Amino acid sequence: MNEDIARGLREAADAHQPDRARILARVERGAAGPPVRHRTPSFARSWPRAALASLATAGILATGGLAVAGIVRMPAPSDTVAPTPATPTATPSPTVTPSPAVTPSLTPSTAPSTVAPAPVPTPASPRPTSSASSRPANGSLWSEGSVDSHSTVYWSQHNLVLKTTQPLTSLTVELRITQTGEVHDTGNWRTLPSEDFTVTVQESGGVLVYRWVLKPGHTVPVGQHEFAGQFNHATGVRSAANDSYRVDAQSAGGPASVWGGFGPAR
């Protein structure tokens, strides 16, 4: 009789498919609810009923054991570990090596010129220089001739600056203007007193001559003095290349003479 019960229980256990959800729900209700009080079975029950109850209890225990074993073997939903997604392996970017900068070579036909332009000479202010036709300084005298900056294509003025470091007891100044066409006197002046000089203007041998002669008994003081001659001429830019001046003087240091030409207008 016991072997038949045991065999029946084993067959029932093997054929049993536990309802996991219902078992979990029962376990949760049993854990949450109050303990169930079971009445002690009465000894008055008959043996057949006691045997059936024992058989049912053994089946329930066997079934419950199998169910509990299944629950233990099956992980709970909360214990389920989600698979870790595989991290994609990053493909390294190809390293780009920059190409070396190419410096264009310049051929002789395309290379820019590096030759600096020749400097344009700046004309210097005309200064008296000694030569065969010019002696601007001698003894106590220094001189410089120039074309006045107010000269035009119809009219011109020649200036002479004379400096002396000693008083002059004798002085003769001449401005010689070459006849280049329609050259005619229009006036003259000097910075020294007019009554100290005898002034003449005359044309001779194709040259218009302005002459100042210091009168006897008069003296030219130390310092800078100026003489000028004015004249008309043919229309156009007139060249003063052949015009000249000469100065002869006497001082306590002895005679002195200077001469020269007329530089560009200033």
TrEMBL record:
The keyword Transmembrane helix applies. The chain crosses the membrane at residues 50-72. The lineage of its organism: Bacteria, Bacillati, Actinomycetota, Actinomycetes, Kitasatosporales. Keywords: Membrane, Transmembrane, Transmembrane helix. Residues 79-143 are annotated as: Disordered. It comes from Streptomyces kaniharaensis. Residues 79-117, 127-137 have a biased composition (Low complexity). This is Uncharacterized protein.
